[in-house]
Write a structure and sequence with these properties.
2 helices, 2 domains, alpha+beta, 3-stranded antiparallel sheet, 72% helix, 128 residues
């Protein structure tokens, strides 16, 4: 009987070792997965931080540009245009004649002035 009890004890220990080995393997695998997930989260955090910093820098730049535009006097353009020899001129009230190389340059200037005017109106209404 003693030999039979020893065999049962050995079988019990083998079963217990197998169970513990399997549990250790599963736990180790879970820890590795958690570590990999943590690295992915850290990489995402760094990416988001970089995007945030870029957006903040762009915001500061635009804010500074807006402050500079606020300091510029608004030019009210009279609707008097002169098209001659491929050049476009316009007269600004109280200002001297401004000449542009072509209609595209005038359009760009006109768009910029229109945007500045809209921004000024929004600021006066305290929307910005």
């Amino acid at each position: 009987m003693a030999a039979e009890e020893v065999l049962q004890t050995v079988d019990h220990y083998k079963t217990e070792i197998e169970r513990l080995t399997k549990e250790l393997t599963e736990t180790t695998h879970e820890k590795i997965q958690a570590a990999e997930y943590g690295l992915v989260v850290l990489e995402e955090k760094l990416t988001l931080k970089q995007q945030y910093d870029e957006l903040e820098a762009e915001y500061d730049s635009l804010k500074q540009e807006l402050e500079q535009l606020k300091e510029l006097p608004l030019i009210r353009v009279q609707p008097s245009f002169c098209f001659s020899s491929g050049r476009v001129s316009l007269m600004a009230s109280g200002q001297e004649e401004v000449t542009y190389g072509n209609a595209k340059e005038l359009q760009l200037y006109s768009n910029a002035m229109g945007q500045a005017s809209k921004t000024s109106k929004l600021q006066s209404r305290k929307i910005i």
